[in-house]
């Protein structure tokens, strides 16, 4: 890890990098939101127009998945989505560190989701009825077993949210770092510049190939993955919340 | 000569502590095996994940071709399914990263 790891250009002493860059993401998002909402107009222009389009997309997704009443949870979902998307994209800028490439950041997001959907479900129908629903529609003898299985499956959700985002980001980062190490001044490019004939031929061709491969394929792929992982995180959050709400409706129907 | 080399190789594999004691080394023999395990595990996980995702995408594209009107909903469901399948490979990736990069694991 030490061979391919490189520190970001800006670090605060004594503070971990992912915290610093989480603050940077927060500053960026707050600035954009402030600029967009400073001078609200009926016919939006510029930053306001941009943010309204983004939030319309979120509303569209919520309407598709959760129905119209899901719009109550737009603040939670859009905040998570914008934070994760900005963090993912920031980790692609050379010299910056991405907050989502660290297990603590993704774990914090997943814990927020975990607490939020249980809170929403318990608020919707009361704590006891919500917990009772974990036992499921099975005979009384099987209810304790079902309850344990359900609890374990619910506990696995934040784990899988955490590890999915973290693994996707870090896997891509390690791939990019290895490619950069391969083509950098210690690798093919350095060989091409070293002066030997074989190095100039093989290293030159190799570095051109790796640069074209990186710029033409790997970076677009990473940008796609950044959007896709933010989308999936928000989509799974929506599914969990709507699951907690729908359980409530089912429960009241059956009894 | 060669056969005895192979046999001693098997002996090292079968009784690593003996080899360790014979060498008198303090270094762990876990390290090389951890690298091998990370590589093989990630290869198996990536291959089977590719098979699973291929099946899912094939069915989804088939359904989208039959019913172009429902393409958006099918695509959303497909992406969620792909994420859930992919997370299994991601678990293996995390374990491989732990095996490769986390120092100080004493098995």
Task: Characterize the main sheet of chain A.
Answer: none
Rg of chain B from C-alpha positions?
22 Å
What's the structural domain tally of chain B? Answer: 1
According to CATH, the homologous superfamily of chain B is F1F0 ATP synthase subunit C
| Tally of individual helices of chain B | 4
Q: Helix/strand/pairing class of chain B, anyone?
A: mainly alpha
CATH architecture classification of chain B: Up-down Bundle
Average pLDDT level of chain B: 78
Class from helix and strand fractions of chain A: mainly alpha
Which regions of chain B have little confidence, pLDDT < 50, spanning 5+ residues? 18-25
Shape of chain A: globular
What is the arithmetic mean of pLDDT of chain A?
Answer: 85
Tell me the distance between the termini of chain B: 34 Å
Number of strands of chain B: 0
Query: Topology as H/E string of chain A?
Result: HHHHHHHH
**SSE string of chain B, helix = H, strand = E?**
HHHH
Largest interface pair: A-B, 18 and 15 residues
Total domains of chain A, how many?
Answer: 1
Binned strand content of chain A: under 5%
Report the CATH topology name of chain B: F1FO ATP Synthase
Question: Quick one: biggest sheet of chain B?
Answer: none
């Amino acid at each position: 890890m030490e061979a391919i790891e490189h520190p970001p250009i800006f670090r605060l002493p004594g503070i971990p990098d992912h915290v610093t860059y989480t603050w940077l993401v927060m500053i960026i998002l707050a600035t954009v939101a402030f600029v967009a909402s400073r001078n609200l107009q009926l016919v939006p222009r510029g930053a306001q127009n941009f943010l309204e389009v983004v939030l319309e997309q979120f509303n569209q997704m919520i309407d598709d998945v959760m129905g119209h009443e899901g719009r109550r949870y737009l603040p939670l979902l859009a905040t998570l989505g914008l934070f994760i998307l900005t963090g993912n994209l920031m980790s692609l800028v050379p010299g910056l560190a991405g907050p989502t490439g660290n297990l603590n950041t993704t774990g914090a997001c997943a814990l927020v989701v975990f607490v939020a959907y249980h809170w929403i479900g318990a608020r919707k129908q009361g704590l006891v009825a919500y917990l009772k629903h974990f036992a499921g529609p099975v005979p009384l003898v099987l209810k304790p077993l079902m309850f344990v299985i359900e609890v374990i499956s619910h506990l696995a959700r934040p784990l899988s949210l955490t590890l999915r985002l973290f693994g996707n980001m870090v896997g891509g980062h390690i791939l990019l770092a290895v490619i950069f190490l391969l083509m950098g001044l210690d690798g093919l490019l350095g060989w091409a510049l070293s002066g030997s004939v074989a190095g100039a031929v093989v290293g030159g061709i190799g570095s051109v190939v790796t640069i074209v491969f990186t710029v033409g394929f790997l970076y677009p792929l990473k940008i796609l993955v950044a959007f896709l992982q933010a989308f999936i995180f928000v989509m799974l959050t929506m599914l969990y919340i709507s699951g907690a709400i729908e359980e409530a409706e089912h429960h009241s129907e059956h009894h | 000569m060669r056969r005895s080399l192979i046999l001693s190789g098997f002996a090292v594999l079968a009784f690593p502590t003996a080899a360790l004691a014979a060498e008198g080394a303090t270094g762990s023999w876990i390290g090389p095996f951890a690298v091998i395990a990370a590589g093989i595990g990630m290869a198996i996980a990536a291959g089977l994940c590719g098979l699973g995702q291929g099946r899912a995408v094939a069915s989804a594209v088939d359904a989208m071709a039959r019913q172009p009107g429902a393409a958006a909903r099918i695509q959303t469901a497909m992406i969620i399914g792909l994420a859930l399948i992919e997370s299994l490979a991601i678990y293996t990736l995390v374990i491989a990263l732990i095996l490769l990069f986390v120092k100080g694991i004493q098995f």
